[in-house]
Write a sequence for this structure.
C-alpha cells in the first residue's frame, strides 16, 4: 500500500522538519513543554492507557488520533487533571509540565496554564462578556477586562460578529460561534498549552474550517494538543501526530511521516481506513 | 390497524376522563368555599381578632402568627437546607455512610408531621426552654421542611450539566468558585421552586403546631420570638369546630385567604423559575 503525500493537505510548516522517532521528539533547539513518562491510566480495573511515553514540543500542534476508546481523550485529560473528578480513576507513571510534576502540582495552577476546549461547546449561561472575564476574575484579575475581552475575541476570530452584543447570552450563539467563544474564554486565562478534545465533532463543515484556521494561527503562540477522529483534520492542522490503539502509543512522528511513511502496520491500516 | 386506532382512542378518553374528574372535584370544592366564605371576606377579617360574635371576628392573630412563623422558618431552613444539599451533592464522598445519611434524609421527608410536633415539644419547648412560643413553632416547622428543601436542592444541583462544571474547572477555578459562580445560578430556579413549595406546606400545617402549643384563642399579634401565637390553619380548624353556621362561614373565609396566599406563593415560584430558565438553554 503506497500512500501519496497529496492525499493529505499538510500544515504549512511541517515539510522541512526532520523525522522524529516515536517517544522522542526532543530537539536541541526546542523546549519540551509537556512530557509523559510510562503513563498508565485505570478506570477502576479497566486499563485505559498503557505505558505511554511522549514529549510535546512548545508552540507545536500535536494531533492525537486513533479509534474510539483507544485512550486518546483520557491522556489529554490527564494533562490538565480533568480526570481528578472521575471516581476510581488511577494514574501511574509521571506527567511533567515544564519539568514540574503535574500530579503533584496545584491543579488550579495547572489548569490556568493548560487550558481546554471541549467536544461540545459549553459556554456558561451568562453574557458573552461574562463568559470571558469569569476565568480571569476568579484568579484575581480586576483591571483592563474590556481590553482583554476584545483581545481574545479578536484572537478567536469572533470579535466582528459579537462586538455589538457582548451583553447577550453566550448560549444564544450558533454552535460554531459558541466553540470560538469557548476558545476565547480559554485564551483569556493566558495559558501556554491549549488542549482540544475533538473540538469540531459537534460543528458543521464551515465552522470546522474556521476552528482549523484558528489552530494554524494560534500555534505560533501556544502549544496545541488536539484529539481528533478526523485524520484529514490531523493532517491539516498538526505538526506532529500520535497514533493510539487500544491504550498504547503505536507511533508518534512528524505528521507528514505518519501519513506518508507510517512505520507500523496498524498505523497504515488506520489511516488508510481499513478499520477505525 | 382498526383495533389499534380503537385502543388509541380508548386510552386517550380514559386519560382525559381522569383529568376531568380531578378538575370537577377542585371546582366543586372552590365553589363551596367561596359560596360559604364570601360574606365575611372584607377588611374586618384582616384587622380584627377572634370574637364571640362572628361578625366581629377576624384572622389578624392567625395571619400575623403565620407570617412570623414562616419568616423564621425560612431564615432557618433555607440556608441550612441549601448548605446541606451542597455538601451532600458536591463534597461528601460517595461511600456507604453518606449514602445511609442521604437515604435517611429522603425518608424524613415522608415522616408524618405530628411526629415533628412531638420532637419540637420535647426539644425546643422543654429541653431548650423556648416555651410555647412562635420560635419553638418555627423551629419545628424548619425541621419539618428541611428534608424537602435538601432533597429538592440536591436534585437541582445534580441536574446542572457536567460539561458546565468541566468548563469552570478547566479554567482553574476552585470548587467553591465553581459552585457559587456557575452551579448555583443554574440550579437556583429548581432550588427556589422546592423552597417555595415547602414553605407552602409549612403554611398549611396545623398538627405539629398544636402539639408544640400554638393557642387556639389569641387576641394579640406576636411581638417577639418568645410570644405565644396561633396560625391560620389552627384558627380555621377552631372555627370549623364551632356549632354556629356563621363560624363555619368564617372558616371558609379563612380557607380562601390561605388559598390565596398559597397560590400567590406558587405563582412567585413559577415566575422565578421561568425568569431564570430563559437564561439557560441546553
Amino acid at each position: 500500500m503506497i500512500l501519496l503525500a497529496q492525499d493529505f493537505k499538510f500544515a504549512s510548516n511541517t515539510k522541512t522538519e526532520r523525522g522524529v522517532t516515536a517517544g522522542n521528539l526532543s530537539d536541541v533547539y526546542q523546549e519540551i513543554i509537556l512530557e509523559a513518562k510510562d503513563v498508565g491510566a485505570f478506570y477502576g480495573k479497566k486499563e485505559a492507557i498503557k505505558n505511554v511515553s511522549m514529549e510535546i514540543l512548545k508552540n507545536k500542534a500535536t494531533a492525537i488520533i486513533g479509534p474510539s476508546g483507544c485512550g486518546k481523550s483520557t491522556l489529554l485529560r490527564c494533562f490538565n487533571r480533568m480526570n481528578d473528578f472521575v471516581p476510581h480513576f488511577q494514574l501511574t507513571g509521571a506527567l511533567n509540565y515544564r519539568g514540574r510534576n503535574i500530579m503533584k502540582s496545584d491543579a488550579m495552577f495547572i489548569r490556568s496554564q493548560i487550558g481546554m476546549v471541549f467536544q461540545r461547546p459549553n459556554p456558561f449561561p451568562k453574557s458573552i462578556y461574562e463568559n470571558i472575564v469569569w476565568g480571569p476574575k476568579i484568579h484575581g484579575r480586576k483591571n483592563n477586562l474590556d481590553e482583554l475581552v476584545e483581545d481574545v475575541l479578536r484572537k478567536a476570530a469572533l470579535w466582528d460578529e459579537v462586538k455589538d452584543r457582548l451583553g447577550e447570552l453566550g448560549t444564544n450563539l450558533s454552535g460554531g460561534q459558541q466553540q470560538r467563544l469557548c476558545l476565547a474564554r480559554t485564551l483569556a486565562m493566558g495559558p501556554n498549552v491549549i488542549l482540544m478534545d475533538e473540538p469540531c465533532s459537534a460543528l458543521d463543515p464551515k465552522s470546522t474550517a474556521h476552528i482549523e484556521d484558528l489552530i494554524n494561527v494560534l500555534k505560533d503562540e501556544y502549544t496545541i494538543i488536539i484529539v481528533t477522529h478526523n485524520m484529514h483534520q490531523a493532517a491539516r492542522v498538526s505538526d506532529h501526530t500520535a497514533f493510539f490503539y487500544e491504550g498504547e502509543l503505536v507511533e508518534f512522528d512528524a505528521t507528514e511521516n505518519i501519513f506518508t511513511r507510517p512505520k507500523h502496520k496498524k498505523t497504515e491500516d488506520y489511516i488508510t481506513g481499513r478499520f477505525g | 390497524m382498526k383495533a389499534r386506532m380503537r385502543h388509541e382512542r380508548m386510552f386517550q378518553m380514559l386519560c382525559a376522563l381522569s383529568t376531568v374528574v380531578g378538575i370537577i372535584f377542585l371546582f366543586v370544592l372552590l365553589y363551596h368555599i367561596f359560596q360559604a366564605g364570601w360574606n365575611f371576606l372584607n377588611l374586618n377579617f384582616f384587622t380584627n381578632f377572634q370574637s364571640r360574635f362572628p361578625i366581629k371576628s377576624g384572622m389578624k392573630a392567625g395571619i400575623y402568627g403565620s407570617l412570623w412563623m414562616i419568616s423564621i422558618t425560612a431564615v432557618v431552613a433555607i440556608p441550612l437546607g441549601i448548605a446541606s444539599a451542597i455538601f451532600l451533592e458536591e463534597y461528601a464522598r460517595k461511600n456507604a455512610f453518606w449514602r445511609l445519611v442521604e437515604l435517611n434524609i429522603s425518608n424524613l421527608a415522608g415522616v408524618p408531621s405530628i411526629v415533628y410536633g412531638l420532637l419540637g415539644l420535647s426539644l425546643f419547648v422543654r429541653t431548650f426552654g423556648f416555651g410555647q412560643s412562635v420560635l419553638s413553632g418555627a423551629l419545628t416547622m424548619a425541621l419539618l421542611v428541611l428534608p424537602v428543601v435538601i432533597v429538592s436542592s440536591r436534585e437541582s444541583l445534580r441536574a446542572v450539566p457536567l460539561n458546565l462544571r468541566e468548563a469552570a474547572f478547566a479554567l482553574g477555578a476552585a470548587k467553591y468558585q465553581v459552585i457559587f459562580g456557575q452551579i448555583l445560578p443554574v440550579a437556583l430556579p429548581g432550588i427556589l421552586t422546592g423552597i417555595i413549595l415547602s414553605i407552602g406546606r409549612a403554611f398549611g400545617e396545623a398538627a405539629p403546631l398544636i402539639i408544640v402549643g400554638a393557642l387556639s384563642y389569641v387576641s394579640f399579634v406576636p411581638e417577639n420570638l418568645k410570644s405565644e401565637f396561633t396560625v391560620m390553619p389552627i384558627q380555621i380548624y377552631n372555627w370549623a369546630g364551632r356549632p354556629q353556621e356563621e363560624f363555619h362561614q368564617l372558616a371558609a373565609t379563612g380557607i380562601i385567604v390561605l388559598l390565596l396566599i398559597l397560590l400567590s406563593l406558587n405563582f412567585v415560584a413559577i415566575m422565578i423559575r421561568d425568569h431564570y430558565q430563559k437564561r439557560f438553554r441546553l
